[in-house]
Each structure stands twice: as C-alpha cells, then as structure tokens.
Amino acid sequence: MKLMNCIKNLKNGYNKSPSLVYFLLENKAFTLGVVAVFAFILRFGLSIKNNDWVESLGNGLEFASILSASFIAMLLYFKEAINKQLINQISKIEHTAVFGLGEFSTALLESEVKEENNAYIIFEKNLLNEKIEHFRKSGMGVVEGDAFSTEHLEQLNFKTISFAIISLGNDRLNIELATIIIEYYKSKKITTPIKLLVHVINQDLNTLFHQNFISQESSEGKIDIQTFSFYEEAAETFFEHNFVDGDNDEIISSNDGYSIVVAGDGELALNIIYQAAKVAHLPNENTLNIHLVDKEAQKFKNRVIKRYSGIEKVLNLHTHNMNDEDFSYFNKDDGSVWFEKNLTHVIIAYDDQEKNIKIATDLFNKTYLENATDKTLKTKVSFAIFNAYTISGKIDADKDSFAQFFSFADIGNICTRENLLDEKHSLISKLVHHNYAQKYAPVSLLDLDDKEVKKIMYEKWYNNSKLSDKLSSIAQAKHMKMKLKALRLQSIPSKKSQDKLIEINREVFDTKLSLDRESLGLSDSFLQDYSDALPKLWEEGLEPIDIKYFPKKYTTMLEKLIRAEHNRWNAYHYLNGWTFKEKTMKTKKEHACLKPLSEFDVPELQLTVIYDIYSILYIPNYLANAGYEIIEKI
Asked: Cα 353 to chain center, whole Å?
C-alpha cells in the first residue's frame, strides 16, 4: 500500500520523502528475509499436502529463492521508474542544475536536504558515487551522462533551470563546461533567464575568463555568469557578519587609523585581504593597516601585490616574519603585533584548519588569556574551521570563557543557497546597476511584477559589454552596510509591503541627513534638475556643463559619505588592475576618475559626483525594493 501511495504521489508532484522502495533496497537482508520466509511458508504449505516432507522442503526453498530474486529485481525497476518520474516532475518547475559533486556542491545539496528543498537535478557521469543515492532518496533527480556531450545536455530542460552550478573539481573543466552550456543555450535560442555559477579558484584564470569570454557576451541571451570559490565565499561571508573597523563606533566616529592582523599564506588569507580592502572605506578616511603574519610574510606580501596590483594605493601592508612553532610568536609584550593600537581583528586564515585551531588555542592560552579573562580584550580573534568541530561550537557559545574568540568559514554554513545564490543581494546589485545615470527619483520603486520593467532591468544586467560596471555595482551594494553604520542605522529583512518600506526607509534615512542636505542645497528638486545634465558626459554637441554642486570642504556627514563612496570605487578598480589615465579606456582598464575627488578639476569629472550622491541617497529605495527595513542601530 505504501509503495502504491508513493507512486501515486509522484504523479501529483515529485516526492519529498524517502520512498519505501529505497528503504527495502537499503535493507536487503531484511527484505530478502521477509520475502523468503513468506514464500517458503506459502510453498511449503501447499506442498505438505502430499505428505512428502523432503520434497516440500525443497520446493519451499526453491520458491523462496526465486521469489526473493524477483522481488529485488522488481524493486530496482521501480527505483529507476521513480527516478525518471522525479526528473520529469522537477524539470517542469523552476529548478537548479548541479554539475559535479565536489565538496562545495555536496555541502550545498546537504543544506538543501535539511531544508527539504529538492528542486535539484544532478548531472553525474559516475553513478557509483555513493553520494548519488543519498540525494536521490531525498527527492532530487539524477541524470547520467557526460556533461561535455551536447547529446547528454539535451536531457535537461534549460527553459526551467534558474541556476546551474558548475563544480567539477578543476578550473579548466569548469570554464570549458560553462562555455559549452552558454553556446548550447544560445544555439537553442532559449530566452528564459539563467544564472551560471562557475567554480574557479585560480584568479588568473578567473580574470581571463571574465575579460576574454564573459565580456564578449551580448544581452541577447539572458545569461548571468558568476564565478566563485569557497575561499572567496568564506571571506565575503566573514565581512557580512563583521565590520572591518569593529562592531562598535569608536573607529568610524574618529579620524584614527586602525589595524587588522591576517595570519595565513594561502587562498583564504588572500581573499580576506581583498574583501577587507573593498569595504574599508569610512567617512573620515581612516587608514587601514593590514599586518601579515607568517614565517615567510614578505614572500606572502609579494603574492598579495602580484594578485592585487593596486592594493598599496588602498591600504598599508606590514609584514611580520614569525614562526608559530616558536614561543616568540605569541609575544604579549609592548610592541607585539597582537597588541597593535586600534587592532580590530586578528584573523587566522591558513588553508589548513588544523593549523588555525592550533594557533588560535595558543593565542588564547599564551597571549590573550589575561585580557580574555578580565574581559578587557577588544580585538576580535577569528579562526577558520572548514568542517566545524564540537570544539568550535563550544568556543562560539561560551563567551564567558572564550571572550572575543570566534570560528568562521564552516563549509556547512558557507555552502547554503542563501550564501551561494545570494538572490536578495543580487537583486540589490541589479537595482544599483539599473539606476546608473538615470534621472534622480527619490521615492522610485521598480515594479518587479511588471514584466516590461523587469525586462528593462535585466537587459541592462545581462549586457556584458559593460561587465566592469556590473561588477562595480555588486561591490557598491556590499558597501551599503558600512554607510548605514556611519549614520548609526542598519537594515533588517521585513515582510511589509514595498510601498510601506519605502515610506519608512525614507523617513528614517532622510532624518539623518536632512540638515546636511539643507546646508548644501541638495534638495530633491535640485538633484532632479542637476541629474538632467548627465547625458552631457556621453553625448556630443550638448551645451557646456554647468557645475551646480561639487563637494569641497567635507565637513558634513553627507559630503564625507560622498568621498567615502568615491574612495571605495577607486579601491575596487585599483584592486582589479585599473590605472589612472587622462582619457578613459575601459577595454584597457584605464579611467580618468581614478584619483581623489579633491583632484577633480574639470566639469566632465566633477559632474560624476552625482553617481556618488546616488549611491547614498538611493539606499532606502534599493533596500525597500529588496524587502529590507532601515532601523536605528541597536
């Protein structure tokens, strides 16, 4: 009866619980035993009428063997039928395709199993992979075949695939498969949007992929391409939960410089430094000092500069050649790196989690024990544990004993749909990108239920000829949290209507800046008129630019935020290999705006300050559109 119900459920929609078939197959000994006993009793009972005990016993055993084998064969048939039905049902709805079952994608799927989200189809060549049956049993579909074969790709319904995660364990193969899928998508003239998430660890390959392939894509196909790596996701997640200048307002409300220590020599440490450099732009231009700690710190610094060539224009890098095997590494005397002035974070970020645990434990016992016990330790000590142990949970929970010590980078927390697909944050980035160079509209909200409005927004986003602008929009969206902090505000998810949220957000946000805007003459009507001049930046033959406003003194919070946004924009481009040139040539990564605002001496540059103003004054709109409410910082 349960088996029939299971099949009946499959006709109405793919089953969300393990089927009876899987239970019986996974417990073959039990299954064979029950069937054999039943068959033997039946056949023996029928044969015993002849009073031939020996013959009846033989008939019973033979029948039991035949029926058991037949029953297992029937179960295997039903399993394959169920799997095919699962694939058919999932393919009819919006779903995610996963290519490759590496550690990253497996962790994502495991988190989705816990959430009972099984609208996934896994493309796998090796069906002997023991993970396959686990995900099949959880209601996910599995397609057997070589993903590099167009013939096998045709088994998938790309019209209903919203996301495709490519993680085959090799950067080159991942990029090659992404290329094949994109060409297939275009050749079939598929018009439904799809987001490809391509796992690429090597940053040089990543840059090449963006420059030589993604940027050549047009907006004809609605293909959004995002590269990712575990270490990048771990670093981004760290700074989503931690302000680089610390959780309090001591640094951001002062003019003081501040420091963080990064102990590491690999990919995670590189990504931590990169993410810190992108978000560390405060209203008062507080200088960030990153102290690199490793037995070959200078060698690691050279790697940092090689990868992020303009980083020394963004922050200060200091090296400390220290070996964690030596007791001197944990020196707690005056002048020790562990007690730098305004040290907000110590981040232990080796790619070896055992080493991270060892260093964190020794730092606690040998360096910070007295301060942690007395609760005078202001520096937050974070150490990377990729597969969370019980010990990390205890440290995070026991703040009486382990004050200011925290673990991060657990693959189970990083590899979630919310983090990896990042749909709400992606929406904010799209909204930023859409409003670029538009006429100022202070209470504007995009009606995302309007197909035409959504089409226009997505056409801009999918136009990869402006890839650098799109990536810059993503970086801008991630800095909003810092701007809100400067105003002593924060955002929280809300179920209120967008119309209500824009009303609340504008009221709370505008109250913080009303006096600044009034003193600077930056009313809504003024900005609307001023934004009409933006076409003069790219359309020839128009009247000369009249600069009605450009910041000069930077005494108000609004002006400081404008400057911070421009510094953030500069930093993002410096970190990604851009250089200053009098004439902008984006194909060569050259830009005329790559200098401080104070050096903008021509109208064509000064007018671009409108973009920086937008980045601040549109925050209430972007957040309301994405379902966030602005509140006073707790």
From this structure: 21
Q: How far apart are the first and last CA of the chain?
A: 56
Q: In what order do the strands lie in the sheet with 316-321?
A: 316-321, 288-294, 258-263, 343-348, 380-384, 405-408
Q: Which tokens sit at 183?
A: 């060409």
Judged against a pLDDT cut of 50, whether residue 10 lies above it is answered with no
The crossing angle, in degrees rounded to 10, of helices 524-531 and 609-617 is 140
Q: Is the pLDDT of residue 484 over 50?
A: yes
150 neighbors 180 (Cβ within 8 angstroms):
yes
Mean pLDDT of 610-628: 95
pLDDT digits (tens, 9 = 90+) for 575-618: 999 999 999 998 889 999 999 999 999 999 999 999 999 999 99
**Amino acid type, 517:** R
Query: How far is 528 from 507, CA to CA, in rounded Å?
Result: 19
The yes-or-no verdict on residue 621 having pLDDT over 50 is yes
As a whole number of angstroms, the longest Cα–Cα distance in the chain is 115
pLDDT above 90: residue 87: no
When comparing pLDDT for 68 and 356, which is higher?
356
Packing angle, helices 267-279 and 297-307, rounded to 10: 60
Question: What's at 567, amino acid-wise?
Answer: N
Q: What is the pTM of this model?
A: 0.84
DSSP reduced 3-state for 259:
strand
DSSP-based three-state secondary structure for 293? strand
Residue 21, judged by CB atoms within 10 A of its CB (0-12, 13-18, 19+), counts as buried
Higher pLDDT, 54 or 341: 341
Give backbone dihedrals phi and psi of 619, rounded to 5 degrees, phi first: -55, -45
Secondary structure of 347-393 in HEC code, one letter for each residue? EECCCCHHHHHHHHHHHHHHHCHHHHHHCCCCCEEEEECCCCCHHHH
Write the DSSP symbol of residue 416: S
Q: At residue 627, what is the residue type?
A: G
Please state, for a pLDDT cut of 90, what percent of the chain lies above it.
50
The confidence score (pLDDT) of residue 264 equals: 98
Buried b (16+ CB within 10 A) or exposed e, 565-586: bbbbbbbbbbbbebebeeeeee
Question: Judging by beta carbons within 10 Å of its beta carbon (0-12, 13-18, 19+), is residue 351 exposed, middle or buried?
Answer: middle
Question: Mean of the pLDDT values across residues 138-148?
Answer: 84
Q: How far apart are CA 516 and CA 105, in angstroms?
A: 48
Angle between helices 267-279 and 467-478 (to 10 degrees): 80
Identify which has the larger pLDDT, 599 or 143.
Answer: 599
CB 273 within 8 A of CB 294: no
Residue 261: φ, ψ to 5°: -105, 130
Instruction: Report d(CA 347, CA 238) in Å as an integer.
Output: 10
Q: What angle do CA 320, 326, 327 make, to 5 degrees?
A: 100
d(CA 253, CA 6): 62
